[in-house]
Predict the 3D structure of the following.
Amino acid sequence: MTKLSITLIFALSVSICLSQNTEQFCNTFFNLQKVVFEQHYQPKTINDSLSSGVYRLFLEALDTDKDFYLQQDINLFEADKLSLDDYILNQDCSFITKYSDSLQNRITANINYLKTLKNVTLDYNNKYKLQFIPNQAYSFYKDKNQQEIGLQKRIAYKTLSRLLDEYEDIAYIQDNFKTLESALKPKIIDNEICLLSELLNKPKGFDNYVYSLFLNAYLKYQDPNSTYFSNSEKTIYEDGLSSNQLSFGILTDKNDNGQIVVAQIIPGSAAFINGNIEVDDIIISLTSKTQ
């Protein structure tokens, strides 16, 4: 009886938390919509055309390379293609939950499968075909099995690519392939898992990450040059543009080894003025000195 009570209390608390998150998203969205209609040059009418456009942009942002969602997810989402305008007009934000939950589940499933690949012998003799930039003809994975095969291909490709980058002598790679591959493949897998884990563990929470994607999709449909910033993103953006010595003025990314590198240097920033920092430099630590 006690165990059942604890379970029910936990379920109730989760439900309340989700409800509060959705309500916060709703408030933010309708405040944003008000700003658009009051200050935008030519705000788009809320109709089926807007619904279709925002839906397309939102889906592209959620799964840019079609790595996570399965076709069954897309079939479920299709009901919203011409219904987002109705949700908006009715001030109903309940639709957003299924996108966040399903994406989180798919990413978690990919992480779990990647862990099992450490003990799987990959077939490097097959003629694999990979497509890195999806186009209209490139569809989502039809089922979980096809997605897992895609993950195998990716790990095999990245392992071979890294070996070719590190060793110029192809004959040496061929003669020592088993040893080299067994040492490198787990590192490739760990790096992939790390990148996916970072996606799941966004600073403000995964739900807020998905909410921001929708808000940006809505703004992008209104105007391709408009972007939504949360308070923290606004601060980071302003710091990046600042020439103040207390801000660094660099944008970062990760290389194939999982190291943090300089991706961009903001003109006029402290990093730009310093002159000793270059794109692709590996960042070991950052410190700021004040006088």
Q: What stands out?
A: The first strand starts at residue 250 and ends at 254. The chain has a mean pLDDT of 83. The beta strands are 250-254, 260-265.
